[in-house]
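This section describes the prediction task in plain terms. A model, or a person checking by hand, is given the sequence of a single protein chain and must write out its three-dimensional structure as a string of tokens. No templates, partner chains or ligands are provided. The sample shown here is typical of the held-out split.
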Amino acid sequence: MISEEIVRNKLYDEFIKPTNQKKDFIGIEIEIPIVNLDKKAVDFDVVHKVTEKFQNHYSDFKEDGIDYDGNVFALKDSRTDDIVCYDCSYNNIEFAMGREKDLFAINERFRDYYSFVKESFEEYNHTLTGMGINPYRKYNIHEPIPSERYLMLYHHLKSIKKYENVPMHFHKYPEYGMFSSASQVQIDVHRDNLIKTINVFSKIEPIKALLFSNSVLLDENKHVTCFRDPLWEYSTHGVNPHNIGVYDVDFKDIESLQAYLESLNMYCVMRDGAYINFESINLLDYFAQDFIRGEIYNNGEYREIDIRPCINDIQYLRPFKFINLTFRGTVEFRSICTQPIKDSMCVAAFHVGLKDNLDDLEHIIDNDEAIYHNGYTAGELRKLLIQDNLPSFVDTNDICKLSKDIVDLASDGLKERGIGEEIFLKPLYERIKRRTNPGKEIISSMHNGCKIEKLIEDYGKLD
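The expected answer:
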């Protein structure tokens, strides 16, 4: 048994203390669906050939992850810290760009990698596209990458029968990590601004839903523009609702944020290089146990194992909040779908432009009546605004003005940086002007007879 005081101190050291450093970097992760244009499952042999070709072409990239079958699933350039890898399965490629001071440096390298990979896949009649849900998911083989982390993760997501007494319903897509793709941003936030950053950015999650939604479940649900949200919420990650979604609370200080961290659940740890998965449990309850019974993967099957909690297990606390604190001293924004490829940098530009204008952003929210102050929390508003149709109490003109005011503020913040990054916000202005977003465009285009093949092509273009 480990005392609550020791756990609290370790939580502070892992997640709060790193924000005492003053840095100003940006990190970007872009997950992108792989599509077999023959309307068949993505050919994993093709994936491995493209990976090998990439490694041969970019010689500074070295193997950073090898699966149980001997296939490379991650490559890393130690000079830039760029990582090109596959996320959850070989149906989804990820470009995790090393931290930089400006977006142009990141964009240049991303465009280079993406062009090479896309052209390489097209030699085999495969391609990449900028959609938050793989448009050909129904053809694919939904198998996790045979590696410690991804086998454990899928095992956890499939374990819904363990939670029969939980007051929630689960969806039928435990494999959703193999067909959903996100665009994530990490920015350095100093402790002095940490509480306000989380509080204020949490309140604009409904506006982000309007601007960025791009996850349509084509064959089953054509009225939700960001189906990623319920995929996370109604999975085993959502057994504890504090582990997912919006912070629907206002933190007063670091202590109240720490109390929230203490309310989170854990579901895995590692021992001797192997993951042990167990039933989702509050982290304080976890450390209060003498032993925890879990499951470990070994030679194609799972067996039960008892482990003794140790304080370093705190590193395996992995919530999937829309805003996550990381051990790097960064805040990670993870509620946005993969965007049409040509618009990829608009996600980071939006967050970077707003991060130093929190007082002005808060003023906009405090004085808004278009959606705020109508009896709904930010989380409830986001659930309403990921629908194709706006709720009846929302005036389209008013919410478009609110969205523009926020994007204007982001533009001002980028102009203050003096680099010219405000150019990356152009797609957001276009969406506001046309009162749409990528998810709405998919729905309306298909309703008007547009072929999905055309959308796959358009959303995958760099220019």
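For orientation: The chain has a mean pLDDT of 96.
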